[in-house]
Amino acid sequence: MATYLPTAYQNGTTSPDWLNKGDNAWQMVAATLVGMQSMPGLVILYGSIVKKKWAVNSAFMALYAFSAVMICWVTWAYKMAFGHKLLPLWGKAGPALGQKYLIGAADLPASQHNHHNGTLETAMIAPFFPMATMVFFQFSFAAITLILLAGSVLGRMNIKAWMAFVPLWLTFSYTVGAFSLWGGGFLFQWGVIDYSGGYVIHVSSGISGFTAAYWVGPRLTKDRERFPPNNVLLMLAGAGLLWMGWSGFNGGDPYSANIDSSMAVLNTNICAATSLLVWTCLDVIFFGKPSVIGAVQGMITGLVCITPAAGVVQGWAAIAMGVLSGIIPWFTMMVLHKRSTLLQKVDDTLGVFHTHAVAGVLGGALTGLFAEPTLCSLFLPVTNSKGAFYRGPGGVQFLKQLAGACFIIGWNVVATSIILLVISLVIPLRMTDEQLLIGDDAIHGEEAYALWGDGEKYDNTKHGWYDDTTAGDGRGQGARGVTIEL
């Protein structure tokens, strides 16, 4: 059976001439780091930041999304985001499977090689590694977007509705933003800068999460009033994986292990650290004590804010962005949220609107101010991209950034609403009140912790290897003749 092989392989060489092994190795590492942000990062964070009765369900929503996106991505969605143009905002669907996807830049059509013909603000990128690497790298971004979105609807969305929502939202919402800004669509050609997903990932997940929370409806009143994390230390472990994984998130987007990727990694950590410290200081000033959850939120807003700008701003700008990402989302969450009827009405479980939508729009706007011309030229062969801080035509870039944000916001509100309304015709979006009262045991028949005594009566059929005879001192004889501490 004949199979397609690039010319280099037909000649018997182990590596084609166009392959840059260093870039390929870094890209695979970066993709894995981004994947680890979801699996296990957000699985751990979600499973521990929610009430004990929702630990399994919250972790499973992330686990399911990661798996479902993988299959949808290679089957049709990758080509919709990075394939040939169908519409100015959408690519043609198609599979990313088979041996022909081992080809790299040298085998791409001439139209997809680096070029600038005077009519395009932003030229196409042709990375020198296999297409399989690109498919995997971009998959990790698509997956984490759905998982971040899930943070808005934890603790009440029907798991069956979520299972239907993931492939539909990936197809009709995510791919549009990705193609428009990254895959050669109209925002890409217009010169809107989204270095690593401030718009494609964070604004879309924050806006769509808030929209989904509106349509799904709120948690039980009791859960909204008190929703303590079941394990703060484990939550910090998940947050740590999220932070460290961001080096691949932003560092992998030049598609090369170059100067730009080093700058992106450094700026990412500078902004995250600054934002965390500013948020913590605000908590101490206004509430008298530092909050661990608040510190994690500040970390996330810093990471989100720098994402659209990571490789195109200087270090001082990363610090300025960290200060603002620690202040503005803190204000919208702690002050504006409590005064807004709309924000109070919509039950956004983890405040994804503030940490991702607000911080993402802020980061995109600040990119329009601080994008440095030389760094922009290292990222893409552009002619006049620079922030308003550098004068000249820089103010135009700021307006482009705002227009790009408006498109992403509008599309995600409409697409998410339509998808959920269609699903609701077949599957209820919200769990029943009885299921909401019980939690994981009602939904999955499983509980996060094999412990008893948390306000419940002892039941030897439920709590394991104990008999019915318990001594007065609180000790009992186990079913296998072992004395067990209750």
DSSP strand tally: 5
**Widest beta sheet: strand line-up:** 3-4-5
* Continuous helix count: 18
The largest pleated sheet is described as: 3 strands, antiparallel
Q: What does the average pLDDT come to?
A: 85
Which structural class do the helices and strands define?
mainly alpha
Low-confidence stretches: 1-12, 101-124, 463-486
- The percent of residues in helical segments reads 55-70%
Please give the radius of gyration in angstroms: 24 Å
CATH fold label of the largest domain? Ammonium transporter fold
Determine the strand fraction and express it as a percent band. Answer: under 5%
Provide the domain count: 2
The outline comes out as globular
Can you tell me the CATH class of the largest domain? Mainly Alpha
* Span between termini: 66 Å
CATH architecture of the largest domain: Orthogonal Bundle
CATH superfamily of the largest domain: Ammonium transporter AmtB like domains
Task: Summarize the helix and strand pattern as letters.
Answer: HHHEEHHHHHHHHHHHHHHHEEE
GO cellular component, one term: plasma membrane
Family: Belongs to the ammonia transporter channel (TC 1.A.11.2) family.
Transmembrane segments: 25-47, 59-78, 128-150, 162-187, 199-217, 229-246, 266-285, 292-310, 316-336, 357-382, 402-427
GO molecular function: ammonium channel activity
